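Translate structure to sequence.
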């Protein structure tokens, strides 16, 4: 028994050393990338076994994913672009059977709506040897695959997870200490330089607790000032970006674990935290943003205009606040690879979210720095926000949606319902009604 404990102790010491090196000098050693390459080979082996099982199934059995509508064929509807689904364009006047196709299209929209799907965990095309992404018991397809799944479970929960907790605690302690130390220096160029170096180092160390592998593209476009905007998937988006560049941040105030980071960050630099429910607080944010971008000595300020976490398959409506400010906008596209671990925050408790990620294989993502964009002459803030959002969605390979992300928790506005009703009514009016309707509309105006 004593020999067994010694073996386990040395094994833990070795893995801890590897994780510690991965959290500090991984850029030079490439440890995380070697780990990811090994996982890809493991996933390929598992998928080969799963495909063999599928070939042996009866042909009348099909995966649910194969029968779902293709994303490209599904019509996109929004409050700004209403469409009367199921209604033929040449209909003039009402017939009773006209509503049947409309009802059918409505039921299809309820079952396959783009808004709800954007707030559910992303479906994987292949199994990644995690039981949470498997509802068909693939781990029991073959004996060798069962052994791989069991070993993976033991490694993730009894080896990596405890060591990642240690790395996280050390990283948070290091982060807090560094931020408090920076806060003791008087404002000036040295304090800003020290904040830039230590902030990137501390976040890179904490990212080691998730085995984060982030690949940054077009680094020449990385922001040096102004406003940086990015799509939003999880609370770790800021950590991912801060492992490569220093930012001041704008965000909703939180309690608990996130409040530790916010309090520490506020000691070192000029971050902006607000209460979304307080309208007066929101109006002050715009003023503070303008003051921040006017000070060229400050780092770029990072904003997530969606305001909610989306599952990385689409980009929701951008709020116009950041785009009303006279400043250059630096768009950033973030796309996580859910095969290794899903970074989307859909859990009710933040503790469950952290547990979910730290028992995953790794967190892998790509980050693209897009060329800076400026508001055109005569362009509204809303149009500018939509143009930036479209660029981010296109670069990240995500669906560009015009829905407000807060619809997931708030009722639909009455005026949005009215737009859809008016669009439907147009198809039921006769030519005579259309002619007489115009003067009435003009008279009301």
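Result:
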């Amino acid at each position: 028994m004593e020999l067994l404990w010694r073996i386990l102790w040395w094994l833990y010491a070795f893995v801890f050393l590897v994780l510690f090196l991965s959290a500090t000098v991984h850029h030079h050693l490439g440890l995380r990338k070697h780990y990811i390459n090994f996982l890809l080979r493991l996933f390929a082996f598992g998928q080969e076994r799963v495909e063999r099982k599928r070939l042996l199934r009866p042909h009348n059995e099909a995966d649910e994913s194969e029968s779902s509508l293709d994303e490209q064929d599904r019509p996109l509807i929004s409050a700004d672009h209403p469409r009367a689904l199921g209604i033929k364009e040449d209909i003039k006047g009402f017939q009773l059977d006209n509503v049947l196709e409309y009802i059918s299209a409505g039921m299809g929209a309820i079952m396959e709506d783009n808004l709800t799907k954007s707030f559910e965990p992303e479906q994987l095309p292949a199994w990644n040897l995690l039981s949470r992404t498997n509802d068909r018991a693939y781990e029991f397809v073959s004996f060798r695959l069962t052994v791989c799944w069991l070993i993976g479970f033991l490694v993730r929960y009894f080896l990596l997870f405890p060591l990642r907790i240690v790395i996280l605690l050390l990283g948070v302690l290091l982060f807090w200490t560094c931020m408090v130390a920076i806060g003791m220096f008087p404002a000036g160029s040295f304090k800003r330089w020290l904040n830039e170096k230590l902030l990137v180092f501390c976040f890179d160390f904490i990212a080691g607790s998730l085995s984060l592998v982030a690949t940054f593209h077009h680094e020449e476009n990385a922001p040096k000032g102004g406003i940086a905007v990015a799509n939003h998937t999880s609370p770790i988006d800021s950590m991912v970006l801060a492992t490569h560049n220093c930012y001041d941040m704008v965000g909703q105030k939180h309690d608990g674990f996130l409040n530790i980071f916010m309090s520490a960050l506020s000691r070192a630099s000029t971050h902006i935290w607000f209460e979304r429910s307080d309208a007066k607080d929101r109006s002050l944010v715009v003023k503070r943003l303008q003051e921040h971008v006017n000070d060229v000595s400050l780092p770029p300020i990072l904003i997530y205009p969606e305001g909610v976490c989306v599952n990385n398959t689409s980009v929701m409506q951008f709020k116009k606040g950041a785009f009303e400010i006279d400043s250059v906008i630096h768009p950033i596209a973030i796309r996580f690879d859910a095969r290794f671990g899903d970074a989307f925050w859909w859990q009710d408790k933040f503790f469950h979210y952290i547990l979910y990620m730290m028992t995953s294989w790794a967190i892998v993502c790509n980050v693209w720095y897009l060329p800076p964009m400026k508001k055109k002459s005569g362009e509204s803030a809303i149009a500018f926000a939509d143009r930036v959002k479209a660029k981010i969605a296109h670069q990240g390979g995500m669906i560009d949606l015009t829905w407000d992300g807060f619809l997931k928790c708030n009722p639909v506005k009455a005026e949005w319902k009215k737009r859809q009703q008016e669009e439907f009514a147009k198809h039921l009016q006769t030519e005579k009604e259309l002619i007489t309707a115009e003067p009435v509309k003009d008279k009301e105006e």
